[in-house]
């Protein structure tokens, strides 16, 4: 039996992707656009964002930008309102913007802990709640949170990141069970080590780099583009009954001893 070609079709769906001016967020936005979605890219820097929107538009995709800081609740809510006003509905939210801060736990400043949690967890809650309010009014939708392989497993110097990402996994489940009956699915994607700007220092560190390569069964870092398919799947009809799920994209690192 032939597989329906509409399984991964996102035509007519408007998807906001936070942290989409580079790295994983941009790769997810590009993949969704390639499958027909109208993508709204977010990041804090309007110029960087405009360049990435132009890149997608030049390739024939339906792309626009909304520059705001995800930790600014008023700005995030206003952006969602503008998207709905322009297009009538928002189908998808990929809450992907995130920051890292590496300091040993005994020296980790409280203000940095709060900042990392604010960006990587609280902002995803606010955006998820506000997007879901609008989705339930316009026929449902899909929310995808970018978590991490770290959370259920840990390593030194990133306590705030690990706590925030594990919290985001739990929030994914909490929202999925509450919103399932309202037509909104909520899932998460958990990348392993991905070669993005966030990890430049680690990639350039020969010792860390060879640890990642040796510790990952697939023997390498992921490329950002390899996260695109997970986003398309969870946004598309192919994922129509998938909710509350955390999809690992980590080359089997999280299941290896
Ligand atoms: N790379 C990995 O190995 C890896 C592994 C697991 C999980 N992740 C997660 O994947 C997500 C993306 O990571 P990445 O590696 O692609 O990171 P990245 O290359 O550093 O990109 C981060 C993106 O987030 C945006 N951003 C940061 N803070 C923001 C804020 N307050 N408001 C709005 N946008 C903000 C940045 O744009 P501006 O700076 O212009 O705002 C940029 O577009 C993060 O949640 C990260 O924790 C990454």
UniProtKB/TrEMBL annotation:
GO terms for molecular function: oxidoreductase activity, acting on the CH-OH group of donors, NAD or NADP as acceptor. Keywords: Oxidoreductase. Residues 13-152 form the Ketoreductase domain. It comes from the Bacteria. Pfam families: adh_short_C2. Coiled coil: none annotated. The keyword Oxidoreductase applies. Belongs to the short-chain dehydrogenases/reductases (SDR) family. This is Gluconate 5-dehydrogenase.
């Amino acid at each position: 039996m032939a597989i329906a070609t509409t399984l991964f079709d996102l035509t007519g769906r408007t998807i906001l992707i936070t942290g989409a001016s580079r790295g994983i967020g941009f790769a997810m936005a590009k993949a969704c656009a390639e499958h027909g979605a109208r993508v709204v890219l977010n990041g804090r820097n309007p110029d960087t964002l405009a360049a990435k929107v132009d890149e997608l538009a030049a390739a024939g995709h339906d792309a626009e930008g909304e520059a705001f800081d995800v930790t600014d609740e008023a700005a995030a809510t206003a952006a969602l309102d503008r998207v709905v006003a322009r297009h009538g509905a928002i189908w998808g939210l990929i809450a992907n913007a995130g920051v890292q801060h590496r300091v040993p736990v005994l020296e980790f400043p409280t203000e940095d802990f709060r900042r990392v949690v604010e960006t990587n967890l609280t902002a995803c809650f606010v955006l998820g709640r506000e997007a879901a309010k609008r989705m339930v009014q316009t026929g449902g939708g899909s929310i995808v949170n970018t978590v991490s392989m770290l959370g259920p497993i840990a390593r030194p110097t990133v306590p705030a990141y690990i706590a925030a990402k594990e919290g985001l996994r739990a929030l994914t489940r909490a929202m999925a069970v509450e919103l399932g009956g309202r037509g909104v699915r909520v899932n998460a994607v958990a990348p392993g080590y991905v070669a993005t700007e966030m990890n430049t220092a680690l990639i350039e560190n020969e010792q860390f780099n060879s640890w990642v390569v040796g510790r990952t069964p697939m023997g390498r870092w992921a490329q950002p583009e390899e996260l695109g398919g997970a986003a398309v799947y969870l946004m598309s009809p192919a994922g129509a009954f998938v909710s509350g799920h955390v999809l690992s994209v980590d080359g089997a690192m999280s299941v290896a001893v």
